[in-house]
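Recap from last week: sequence in, structure out.
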Amino acid sequence: MKLTFNGGVKAVTGANYLLESDQTKILIDCGLHQGGKFSERQNWDDFPYSPKDIKAVFITHSHIDHIGLLPKLYREGFRGTVYSTTPCKEFSRVLLNDSQHILEMEAKRSKKPILYEEEDIVGLMKLWKGGKYHKPITVDNFTVTFYSAGHILGSSIIYIEADGKRIVFSGDLGNSPAPLIGYKEELPETDYCLIESTYGDRIHEDIAERKDIIENMIENVVRSGGTLMIPAFAMERSQQLLYVIHELMHEGRVPKIPVFLDSPLAIKLTEIYKRHRSYFSEDVIAQIKPDDPIFSFPGLKKTLTTMESKAINEVDPPKIIIAGSGMMHAGRILHHLKRHLPDPNSILLIVGFQAKGSLGRQLFDGKKKVRIHGQDVEAHCRIKAIGGYSAHADQPQLMDWLRPQRKKLKKVFVVQGEEKASAVLRDKIKDELVITASIPQKGITYDII
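Predicted structure tokens:
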């Protein structure tokens, strides 16, 4: 086998890995580059391979930095098969349509050609097959099996056998146990492994404390009469937050104040969650009845239209607003930030990774004045970040996942992290587990021998 890294190295986004065996070429993920103008310009670069030559694409999960360039791949000639879990396929259809509109606006603003159109997404989805965990798929020399990554609903660790060798692509590994989907599965016995490193240099708060932190933030805005803003990724994070806030209110731990899910995309994705309860953790399945409205509770308002979103301003605080986007680079959260960042009684709660160059990263780093919609906005509200609510495993979890296979692994490639985080994790793997580990170079082909 030969492995080429065409993205997802020294950066969190843009996962794109090419595997070759004899004349067969497959991809693992085909993601969009995100997190700043330099990074995003790469989306318009030519693929370093012919899309027509790709026999199949295997998808770890439905986040845009792992699927966002699939329609472009189709537009430029790919006619193979895309494989993922069934929930991943359903989520991807919705997320790609949403991304297409954003990319089209960006292309017009930057005077660039459009990356793809809606008809490319339609064509792509006709090639997409949804499947289940633990059911092997054969494509010529390759045998591919999905395992649960515990990251988002339907997310996968991808295990590939070919030419007598075994290689694992971690995708994004979950911060286990995730509130809804439970634990990631153990690393299968393998020769080589690509491991993500988004939080390779960090340790999250105690996972048991995250519910307490949400409780404290709600209590604080109730006392101050402010607004709790939570920029959240439409996929998984929004649903986790709704689940936990519902629990807190149901248990009487916080007052029942208005809660707004102000994200059309999150609302659509939540409906898909309802159809795939079998992917929830055993504990959650045991707790909820078949007719239990797990993502609906008194005081929750889902604001689908623009008029409904604007009407949030007419509701007096205290209140909670969950809105996209998670890194605050676009979406309805920007309007709420303009209104509430200057308010010392309000709180901005950051519950996800903030890439370099994003507005969220600026606020996370303590910047007191930011640009939103061409205006300077001062940040006087309290800003709190919770690493424990990240959907990514932290350094100890990443190490624990690798540890059982340390005597079998020939090499670990550290990917999908900013360079510093990747370097810290690489050194930790080499020093503590005594495994050969490296940060691969983009565009370089490695022999899997």
